[in-house]
From TrEMBL:
<keyword id="KW-0808">Transferase</keyword>
<keyword id="KW-0328">Glycosyltransferase</keyword>
<dbReference type="Pfam" id="PF11897">
    <property type="entry name" value="DUF3417"/>
</dbReference>
<dbReference type="GO" id="GO:0005975">
    <property type="term" value="P:carbohydrate metabolic process"/>
</dbReference>
<dbReference type="InterPro" id="IPR000811">
    <property type="entry name" value="Glyco_trans_35"/>
</dbReference>
<dbReference type="InterPro" id="IPR011834">
    <property type="entry name" value="Agluc_phsphrylas"/>
</dbReference>
<dbReference type="InterPro" id="IPR035090">
    <property type="entry name" value="Pyridoxal_P_attach_site"/>
</dbReference>
<feature type="modified residue" description="N6-(pyridoxal phosphate)lysine">
    <location>
        <position position="615"/>
    </location>
</feature>
<dbReference type="InterPro" id="IPR024517">
    <property type="entry name" value="Glycogen_phosphorylase_DUF3417"/>
</dbReference>
<feature type="domain" description="DUF3417">
    <location>
        <begin position="13"/>
        <end position="125"/>
    </location>
</feature>
<protein>
    <recommendedName>
        <fullName>glycogen phosphorylase</fullName>
        <ecNumber>2.4.1.1</ecNumber>
    </recommendedName>
</protein>
<comment type="function">
    <text>Phosphorylase is an important allosteric enzyme in carbohydrate metabolism. Enzymes from different sources differ in their regulatory mechanisms and in their natural substrates. However, all known phosphorylases share catalytic and structural properties.</text>
</comment>
<comment type="similarity">
    <text>Belongs to the glycogen phosphorylase family.</text>
</comment>
<keyword id="KW-0663">Pyridoxal phosphate</keyword>
<dbReference type="Pfam" id="PF00343">
    <property type="entry name" value="Phosphorylase"/>
</dbReference>
<dbReference type="InterPro" id="IPR052182">
    <property type="entry name" value="Glycogen/Maltodextrin_Phosph"/>
</dbReference>
<dbReference type="GO" id="GO:0008184">
    <property type="term" value="F:glycogen phosphorylase activity"/>
</dbReference>
Amino acid sequence: MKPLSLLTVSSELPEALAPLRDLALNLRWTWRRQAADLFRSLDPHAFVESGENPLAMLSQVPAGRLAEAAHDEAFLARMRSEMGDLGTYVGSGRWFQRTVPGAQGHGEGSTIAYFSMEFGITPTLPIYSGGLGILAGDHLKSASDLGVPLVAVGLLYQWGYFSQSLDRSGWQQEEYRLNDPSQLPVEPVREADGEQLTVSVTLPGGREVTIAVWVATVGRVPLLLLDTNLEVNDEAGRAITDRLYGGDHEHRIVQEIVLGIGGVRAVEAFSALTGAPAPTVFHLNEGHAGFSGLERVGRLMQGGAGFAESVAQVRAGTVFTTHTPVPAGIDRFDASQLRGHLDADESGISRLIPSLPVEAALALGIEEGGDVFNMAQLGFRIAQRANGVARLHGAVSRGMFQDLYPGFDVPEVPIGSVTNGVHRRTWTSAHMDDLYKKALGDVDISSLQDWSALSTLTDHELTETRDALRADLVTMARRHVKESWLRRGADEAELAWTDHILDPRALTIGFARRVSTYKRLTLMLSDPERLRRILLDEERPVQIVVAGKSHPADRPGKEFLQQLVQFADDHGVRHRIAFLPDYDIRMASVLIAGSDVWLNNPIRPEEASGTSGMKAVLNGSLTFSVSDGWWDEMRDDEAGWTIPTAEVEDQGQRDRIEAEALYEILEQSIVPLFYERDARGMQRGWMTKVRSSLVKIAPRITAARMVRDYVTDLYLPAARAASAFTADPALAGEFTAWKETIQREWHAVAVRGAELEGADGGAVRTGAEITLRADVELGALRDTDVLVEAVLGEIGPGDEIIEPQLIPLQREEDGRWVARFALTAPGRVGCTVRVTPQHPVLASRAELGLVTTA
Ligand SMILES: *Cc1c(COP(=O)(O)O)cnc(C)c1O
């Protein structure tokens, strides 16, 4: 019988339980176990059925159970206690208020607007694909824990990122799920009249697209989510926020217009509505929101400022984080396509961003040659402060973008680094969290920097925890492998073997991340026979659990995946190696925590940071990694193992050498250490290493540390720089005029006749005073316009001065510029003199791209 119509029946929440809705709508429950447990205990079945989605489950709990809970004093007390805790958490001053002068009043002072194309906070809000999004989610959670006044902006997609399954041959299958807004933990932002807040953007041909603004609440941080799927929009307009990273370039540009331009409009409207201060700092997590800078330039110009002044002012308050060391990973658009969108009128002013001169704006991002608009370049031009996401990545980025700062050596390219981190509470298993509490006390760990008390954890405690986590992983893996085979067409009756795969006591290696070629999923398969021997060792077995999605358009990635799956399908090894389809936050938590060793073998230096290895560290899993991303700066033989990088050009040869090292370390070091037991059966050596990793590495890889670094190194300086402009309305004009003078007059700047005194014939003793004198011609410029510096340093290959020390020269009465110094270390040292522009608004010497050397 066919139904006449379909109805969704849901229970009404009794008045006494109304606070549950508020608890479900603040995503803090995702990192507070007691809150999640409260929902679970309301109805364990509905909790699981809803996909552990508290909001969705509330409408699925049978009315009888709700009525019962509404009269259950114990339940109500727990609920009230959670509400009380949330209230305290949201309302009390935290690290930011204690540390930053003038920030005591919660919600006062300057705010940071954080833009990202994706946010991975919880699987119940599927608006992310992987690492970048989860990083953004962790950023918000830690900003909330630390009390950093942040408002975030993203897109609300109608479809989540795909879920992955396999066909019989191991080829990836993709399936997209529709997001049901009523089941998502978001609420409409409402205007005074009760209507949902909307903003709009105008697309070419005068097509106006209306954007509805939703809010997801992440502890104390509001995350504004923009949604174009509205009846007032035409078909194409509604499809703008259809899915993450789907569609062509045109689709991507329009999404980025909505995120960047719509985002600025939404933040502004939200501030006006809530009375919150308008943001002074704008943080662009990757280049996708670069258009926000253009929108802000347009707004200042509307107020009467010139283009250059406006750019200077916008730059002061903007922070740009780049996330990829591979040029192919950067968003690059056809310049003419973008020109079409900016849509100049007869006088060259944009119809999309009122008051913005189109060609001047395009010039910020157009690559040499003129055909390509580069979003990273726009990021560097629109943000005075920029960073990579690990120390090595910062260095690689400086090399990659050196061309934007001609005349400067790579180390001086103004791109710093803030190493990524992961949100501790989110990524620490419950078992392990108990150990943190035991060792560190029940304190706010997010602002605790000394974790040395973790060294008091005993072998016994760690063993119990590690065994439990491994057992949880084995249980999960068995279930997933069975489900996967059912989907691949196997019959339940032939799958009894899946209940016995993997061994809860065997050394377990985890490998899970997006499957893209540079991450080299199949490096471990380089010598399949050797791998088999390692896995199948009778006495000291090794098992590997693998997961990861490949981007739908990445064919080589899918081929890697298929190779791995086909290896794991083999009857001889399928009990020792398993591929789990549909890698996601939830699977990651169990898989990463349960692995004894977390393997990471990208092609150095293509992994910007990597964060899964950090999640492993938090759980007492040991790192086994190429010296890339975060591990390059933290690698430590007492806390993990490093696969050496082969310095050979040929990629195939390099893979073979590095694979050889991988097997060697595994066979010679990792396996023996894992199976070494003392008289009491304890893994003493292993647990010593685990403790080292926890004490030395763990405190450095938290998102709390990362957010504190952002605040100190980037947000506060940016806020100060931006407020200098607002405090002094003449500053932008003065600075711009100064900059024009410098650019016009710089040709006359020259260094003549630098000489060293006290260095006879080029020979000096350490500690002996040397005097450097130089004649510097400045033409029309003043002394205060420039910085004259001695550049001193070791001579590297190519006769270049490497890692130079900079010593300022002062003008003396005779008109010459002088510095006195002594050299402390013996060796060959090069010395020269250079002149760069100097102004309080500049954040780096390379900013104007002007330098004159002797
Ligand atoms: C942590 C995480 C990632 C990112 O892992 P990397 O090591 O940075 O590649 C991707 N997906 C999920 C589900 C994660 O939890």
